[in-house]
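User: Fold this; tokens only.

Assistant: Input:
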Amino acid sequence: MKACTFLLAALTLALLPASAQQTPPEPPSPAWIQEFNSLPEATRKSYIDQFRKAEQLFTQKRTMECLFSLTELEKLYAGNPGLYNLRGACYIEIRNIEKALENFEKAQKLDPSNLTIQFNLAEAHYVNHDYARALKAFTELLPPFKDNPGMTPLLQFKRYICARKLDNRPLAKELENLYGPMDDTPYYYCTQAIIKFMGGDKDAAQEQLLSAIRIHGGTSAIQAFTDAMTEAGILPSPYGQTVPTEQPAKTGLEKRR
């Protein structure tokens, strides 16, 4: 799961004087922003600086340090949905899926319309191999991302994997032909690779993957697609172990594969 800017722009906007904010006036700020605005300016500035550092720690893979920073930030202000979103991403990294879900759900309650949070929650269900919930969540994200040429194929691809895992053959068949080899996405080749893998033809599957890498290699898209296949146990993990295809035991804390 990749880090995004977790509502930092909204926090920064809260520091601007009224005369510097956009005109004409926009819809009322979310309740958590209004609450944040009521804090002393010095506290707000300190909070934003510390939050930026926490994001940097996450980007640098210093996950435990990031978690500690978020605990300290929560003492200053506990209403920022971005805090729980970032904490959820940390827990995904260390494979504490139960805690990740708990934090993403808390973030969503604070900011129900935030697409980053919605996507991360869907991803958490997917990583947890809860394919029914993941399918529902990815499907609900299609309309808001309908004009996004990068996200829509990825959402549809994850829906395809969910459909295969749930043995929803009509949906899987529908999604297999959604994109062709000439489309600007690795969707076709990765879908074909799954068909070959699940049919037992590993050589043909590898050929499809090599085609995807040859055409789309070096893009963030190919990484996202192959990551989705690894999480579902279709591809082996880069650490030499195969991701389990059955529902994992909920141990609370699992090692990073």
